[in-house]
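The instructor's notes for this session suggest beginning with a concrete chain rather than abstract definitions. Hand out the sequence below and ask the class to guess, before any prediction is shown, which regions might be ordered.
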Amino acid sequence: MPRVERRAQLLDSALEVFVAQGYHAAAMDDIAERAGVSKPVLYQHFPGKLELYLALLANSCDQIIDKCRAALSSTDDNKERVARTVEAFYDYVASESGAFRLVFESDLTSEPAVSEQIDRVTSECADMIAEVIREDTGLPDPASRLLAVSLVGMAQVSSRFWLEEDGDLSQADAAALVAGLAWRGIRGYPRAE
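After discussion, reveal the predicted structure:
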């Protein structure tokens, strides 16, 4: 198998193991077995469990950041931007891969390289949203950023709560409800002339 394909296969297998077991309980033996390779093959691609986890985490963080970017750039209508950004978080959390657990529920947040990646999600998504708020409202950078972080937090926490709650709300209804709340708040900051 070509190196790039083998790496992707190993990452897919590792994702399944880390999501199911968490970092500490996962073993390189389990990952190699899931991938159908020997441990030496696994170690040819990743020098250790932490490096493998960090590669997966970086991919997972990139996914939600890219979804946020796509949502914001998909329209110039701010009400739609809010809805699509909230939907992006709900889609990410509802994904069958469970990759969101690496980002939002990691059992390794005491590791600086892990917490840096996790913080990157909030920071980069908030930066993109803050730019829109700043351009539209003329609010100063600190105010725009605080509002943006609040919106990211609302989408991230509510989507995880919705998934764990297993209630009567569909994903679409839950995302629309939270987007409505966010829009009612953020629209109170009128566009600058």
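Then share the key points. The CA atoms of residues 69 and 128 lie 7 Å apart. The domain at 1-47 is CATH 1.10.10.60 (Arc Repressor Mutant, subunit A).
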